[in-house]
Amino acid sequence: MDGHWTHWGGGWLPPRPPRPGVISLRPLTPGDILGGACAALARYWVPLVGAMLLGQLAALLLLAATALAALALHVRPVDALVPAAALATLLTCALASALTGAVLRPAVLGRPATARTLLRAARPRFGAVLGAQLLVLGAVAGPGAAVLAAGLPPLAAAATLPAALGLGVLCALAPTVAACEGLGPLGALRRSARLVRGAWWRTLGLTGLAAAFALAAAYAVQLPFAFAGALSLIPAVDGGFVHAVLTALGAMVAQTLLLCFPQLTAGLLYTDRRIRREDLAAELTRQSAPSGEFSSA
Q1: How far is CA 161 from CA 112, 165, 189, 229, in A?
Q2: Angle ∠(104,107,112) on CA atoms, nearest 5
Q3: Which residue of 94, 98, 136, 222 is most buried, as measured by CB atoms within 10 A?
């Protein structure tokens, strides 16, 4: 790419880095990463919501089947629904991570994506992503759980929080690695630790900001749906069904924000670390041609 003239310096500026998608193909600033995650969510929210809807419907079917089985076996529904809800939550989180890993390629390269193509790309990596998330959960919660299981007081478990935080940040990119690279769960954790090393505080700050932004945005998105749903309950309107639909739609969009935006931020952090350490920008520039494809190798 040729340089460009500026009258401010009276000479030629270096060539601008290419920007085929939501980020420029160069080392990214924190603003680039958060802004790129917002741009990716704004551009691909329709296929993400559509694909997440299928996952949420599957989770609801799992809960309904569990409730019916509990009634048939004369088991208290609560005893069966609590572990089923935990399993459904884990599966939904893994689906969100796999989908955001799948959307990373078109987002960085500026290409379209549909819910079908995202699901097709996410399906082969779903098991690895789920395994990586379970290992991260075990690494973060394991020390405290072991202390409590040994019968020690909760204050002793609180002393493990720094170790849990350190491990959690080191493993923060593991679901993205599992989604984007052909690695198993353990390989994804090791790869994440290598990529995060040297940028621990940066990773902590950006993931924390992404989580806070997602919480605020999810709350803001739900408000108009809740307000419209409340209006539909006015007796003259007689909109009980409308209220249910609007409430469910607002919850679905909010959950997509809560689950997908932090993972999009992690995906761009992963891209930035590879640009800085592995010269990924040159490979992405080559692949930004119409015939190129995103490669995680």
Answers
A1: 42, 6, 19, 41
A2: 115
A3: 98
Average pLDDT over the chain, rounded to an integer: 84
pLDDT computed for residue 250 by the predictor: 76
Higher pLDDT, residue 297 or 33:
33
**CA distance linking residue 100 with residue 95, whole number of Å:** 9
Sort 226 into a burial class: Cβ within 10 Å, 0-12 / 13-18 / 19+: middle
Calpha distance 231→255 (Å, rounded): 23
Q: Indicate the angle between helix axes 240-278 and 280-287, nearest 10 degrees.
A: 120
Q: Which amino acid is at 181?
A: E
Residue 40's closest CA among 113, 98, 94? 113
Decide if pLDDT at 169 tops 90: yes
The CA distances from residue 144 to 135, 149, 151, 160, 223, in Å, are 15, 9, 11, 6, 37
Per-residue pLDDT, 83 = 83
SS (H, E, C) 200-258: HHHHHHHHHHHHHHHHHHHHHHHHHHHHHHHHHCCCCCCCHHHHHHHHHHHHHHHHHHH
- pLDDT higher than 90, residue 295: no
- pTM of this prediction? 0.84
d(Cα 169, Cα 156) in Å, to the nearest integer?
22
